[in-house]
Amino acid sequence: MSDIIRNLDPKPVWKNFADLNAVPRPSKKEERVIKFMKDFGERLGLETLEDEVGNVIIRKPASKGMEDRKMVVMQSHLDMVHQKNNDTDFNFDTQGIEMYVDGDWVRAKGTTLGADNGLGVATIMAILESETIVHPPIEALFTIDEETGMTGAQGLKPGVLQGEILLNLDTEEDDEIGVGCAGGVDVTATRTYNEEQTPEHMSGFKITVKGLQGGHSGMDIIKGLGNANKFMNRLLFDAYENVGLRIHSINGGSLRNAIPRESVAEVAVENIHKDAFELELNVLATTIKTEYKTLEPELEVVIEAIETPETIMDLGVQEGFLRSIYTAHNGVYRMSPDIENLVETSNNIARITLGNGEVEVLCLTRSSVESSKTDLANALRASFELSGFVVEFSGEYPGWQPNMDSDILKVLDKTYKSLNNGEQAHIAACHAGLECGILGQHYPEMEMISFGPTIRGAHSPDERASISSTKKYWELVLQVLKEIPIK
Predict the structure, then answer these.
(1) Residue span of the signal peptide, if any (predicted)?
(2) What is the pLDDT averaged over residues 43-50?
(3) How many C-beta neighbours within 10 Å does residue 22 have?
(4) Among the options 116, 139, 146, 262, which is catalytic?
(5) Which H or E element spans position 478?
(6) For the chain, what are the domain ranges?
(7) What is the CA radius of gyration of the chain?
(8) All residues at 6 or more sequence positions from 435 whose CB lies less than 8 Å from its CB, including other chains
(9) 207 HSE (CA, 13 A, CB side)
C-alpha cells in the first residue's frame, strides 16, 4: 500500500509523506524524526542545522533568476498526535503509520494519519529536493512538539532565521488563508484523597463510554461533539445521587488537544441497589444517546459486572470531584463578536485519571482574546479549588493577531483567485493554536500566512487527507513561490 501512496498525484508530496510516516514521531519523542530530517538536508548538500531545542533549519539558495526575491521561511511541525481505536494493536513509538486509499481520501488503519502536519513537512521536502521548481531563497523550519506545548516554537531564538516572509503550512481547509489563531493555556487540577476498604455488601461494575468521534479540540470544538469525560461524569453523578455509587477508578481521554472519545470507570454499588443501578444508568444512557443521535451516532455506554474493587474513593472528596467536573465548562465559551462563525474562547476537559489516592484533570483553554482566556481559566480554577484541588496554569502561548495589509496576504489572495477561476479564498482566523503567534513574538517584523490541503478528523483515528485537495494546494504553493515580492 505504501507504493500506492507514493505514486499519488502530486508524487513529490506523497512520496515524501510516505517516507516521513515510516518514522515514529510522537510529541516529545522526536529524536528519530529530527535525525531523519537532518539526514535529508545533508544528503541534498544543503546547509542544515539543529537548534538548542531540536528544531531543524535547512537553507536552499534561490533558483536561477529568483535571487532578488525576499527569503521565505517555509514552516511545519515534525510531531503528530497519537490516537488509536481501542481495538487497534499499534505501537506509535516503534511503528510507522499504516496508510490506505479510500476514494479521494488517504487514511490510516485505526490510528491518526499524521497529515497534520506531515503533508506540510512533505511539501517543504519536495521543494528542497527539486531541481526544477522556481522559488526564492528558502529557509525550511521544521519545529518540534507543536502538539503538546509548542516548545519548539517557543525555544527558537531570535536571530536564527533570516527570512522576511513565513509560510505556515498547517491549515486544514484548502480554500482558507489563515491570518490569525487562538492562544492557549494548560489548566491542570490535582488532589489526593483517602482510599477506603470496599464494604462486603457492595458489587463491582465497569462503565465504558466509547464510540465518540473525538477530534481537534480547537477546530472541532464548534461542532458541539460529545466529550467522554463529561458524559461519564453525568452517569456517575446520577448514580451517586440515586443509589449511592462509589468510585474506584476513572481513565478518560488522552491528549489535551484531542476531544476525548472514550472513558472507563470502575465503581461499586450496594448489592440491594444493583438492579436499580443498572436500570437507572441504562435509562440515562439512552437519554444521552437520544440527545446526541445526530452528532454522535456511534456512541455506546456499556455497563458490565466485574469483581468488586478492593478500595473506593473517600465519599467527601468523591462528591466534590463530581460536582467540580459538572461545573467546569467544556466546549465553546464565547463566539467572536467581530468575526462571523469564529469561536473566540473554549475549553476542552481532555483527560481525567483517578485511582490510588490521586486525581488529575487536564484541560486546554483557548482564546483569541487574552483577557477572555484568563477569564475562563480562572473560572475553571475556581470550580476545582472549591473542592480542594490544586490548580496550575502552564504551557501558555499567545494568539496570532491578523495583519490584513500584509504583502504576502495580497499574493496568496490574488494567486488563489487566478488558479481557481476567480473564486475568492476564505480569509480567516482559526480557533486552533498555530505557531505563528509564538514565532511572531521572536520575529515581529516577519510577515506570516497559513494555508494547507483539506484534512478531516485531525487528532482522531478518523483523520484523513483529500488527494484532490492536496493537488490543488500543491499548485498554489508552486505559484505562490513564483510570486514572492522583490527585496
Answers:
(1) none
(2) 98
(3) 13
(4) 146
(5) helix 467-482
(6) 2-181+399-482, 185-397
(7) 24
(8) 75, 77, 143, 146, 150, 152, 153, 168, 170
(9) 29
Q: How many residues in total does the chain contain?
A: 487
Q: Do domains 2-181+399-482 and 185-397 have the same CATH topology?
A: no
Would the pLDDT of 175 be above 80?
yes
The pLDDT of 126-146, averaged and rounded, is: 98
Q: What is the pLDDT of residues 396-423, one digit of tens each?
A: 988 898 888 999 999 999 999 999 999 9
> Which secondary structure element, helix H or strand E, spans residue 51, and what is its range?
none
Beta bridge partners, 76, equal 142
| Cell numbers linked to 198 | 470496599
| CA separation for the pair 21, 1 (Å, rounded) | 13
Residue type, 327: T
Among candidate residues 464, 461, 470, 453, the one with its CA nearest the CA of residue 81: 461
Is 146 one of the catalytic residues?
yes
Residue (of 295, 292, 272) closest to 284 by Cα position: 292
Grid coordinates of 399: 494568539
Q: Verify whether residue 447 is a known catalytic residue.
A: no
The residue annotated as part of the active site, out of 30, 79, 186, 463, is 79
Is 60:133 a contact under the CB 8 Å cutoff? no
Among 105, 95, 49, residue whose Cα is nearest residue 454: 105
- pLDDT (mean) for 320-347: 95
Q: What is the pLDDT of residue 339?
A: 82
Which 3 state secondary structure label does DSSP give 382?
helix
CATH code of domain 2-181+399-482:
3.40.630.10
Q: What is the pLDDT of residue 1?
A: 56
Whether the Cβ atoms of residue 140 and residue 60 lie closer than 8 Å to each other: yes
Could you tell me the pLDDT band of residue 287, with boundaries at 50, 70 and 90?
A: very high
Which residues of 88-159 form beta strands (DSSP E)?
99-102, 105-108, 138-143
- 185-397 architecture in CATH? 2-Layer Sandwich (3.30)
pLDDT range class, residue 433, cuts 50, 70, 90: confident
Measured between alpha carbons, how far is residue 105 from residues 18, 76, 258 in Å? 14, 21, 21
Mean pLDDT of 132-141: 98
Task: Read off φ and ψ for residue 51, nearest 5 degrees.
Answer: -85, -170
